[in-house]
Design a protein that fits this description.
By secondary structure, this protein is of the alpha/beta class. It has 11 helices and 7 strands. A 5-stranded parallel sheet has the order 5-4-1-6-7, sandwiched between helices. Strands 2-3 form a two-stranded antiparallel ribbon. Strand 6, helix 9 and strand 7 form a beta-alpha-beta unit. The longest helix has 23 residues.
Length: 280
């Protein structure tokens, strides 16, 4: 065996050892495909742009029709109020997939402590189409409210992150965080009601069912029934952004019981699948 062949063999062996080491580092994680799709796919980016572009095309009609309202909390005597839109922040306006990628690559899980550190780093980026839609609304005299379940101590960093990209109405009056007031819990109805007190809410945007209604229907079957109950809202007054990385859709499969072990939760997710019987 000549020296070239020996060197090639050593190089090939080193490459195999390197691949093996990488494979050992890349542990199985339930969030890998979802996070990869969210961060890299054209399919996600074009879907988000399509949602926001469709909403932007409806702005004129929504503003001009004074009977038009998107909020179940709207109440009476709203027709002469200033129009407003309400948007969730995480995975609706700001892309936090870097945090989800960290969870996957470090084989860890969400915690309020690490999430707060991420928020305070102010590195989230705009969801495709979100900046264009909010600017178009503001230019037409529509108030913009960001109703988020980020906590009160994270409000300043959230506002700074929004301002970095030029989101309109990025201030303490229009960024409504969880716990800012006693009645502002993780359910967003009280905050939507607060916006509706002085505005006609014409559109709402979110990546989770709870961004639109507090009563989400409970289990999977109930959620589907609740979705159908509001069939006339979707795509006209309510606009859903895709988020396969986390959300109430996941916990619906295991009764929202996060005390279950990861293995128990995973089994209940398997049980919730409607699978093919396989080839005959």
């Amino acid at each position: 065996m000549n020296a070239f062949m020996k060197m090639a063999g050593v190089t090939a062996l080193a490459t195999l050892v390197s691949f093996a080491a990488q494979a050992q580092d890349a542990k199985p994680n339930d969030g890998l495909n979802a996070t990869l799709w969210y961060q890299t796919s054209v399919e996600f980016k074009t879907t988000a742009r399509s949602v926001y572009a469709g909403a932007e095309r409806l702005l004129g009609a929504a503003i001009g029709d004074h009977s038009w309202s998107a909020a179940l909390e709207q109440g009476e005597n709203y027709m002469s109020k200033q129009p407003a839109i309400v948007l969730d922040v995480d995975e609706t306006v700001l892309d936090n997939s870097a945090y989800q990628a960290w969870v996957v690559t470090k084989d860890t899980s969400y915690s309020s402590k690490t999430w707060a550190e991420f928020v305070n780093a102010e590195i989230s980026t705009p969801i495709p189409g979100a900046l264009e839609l909010t600017k178009a609304a503001a230019e037409k005299g529509v108030a913009v409210y960001y109703v988020t379940n980020r906590k009160a101590p994270e409000e300043a960093a959230t506002i700074a992150n929004l301002k970095k990209y030029g989101f309109p109405y990025a201030d303490a009056d229009h960024v409504m965080v969880r716990g800012e007031k006693k009645e502002w819990t993780s359910e967003k109805g009280t905050r939507r009601e607060a916006v509706a007190a002085n505005h006609r809410i014409i559109m709402m945007f979110g990546d989770n069912f709870g961004d639109f209604v507090d009563d989400m229907g409970g289990d999977i079957k109930g959620r589907l029934a609740k979705m159908d109950e509001y069939s006339t809202y979707w795509g006209e007054r309510w606009f859903m952004l895709p988020n396969p990385t986390y959300g109430s859709w996941e916990s619906a499969a295991f009764g929202d019981n996060w005390k279950l072990s990861p293995e128990e939760r995973r089994q209940m997710k398997y049980d919730a699948l409607n699978d093919w019987n396989g080839p005959k």
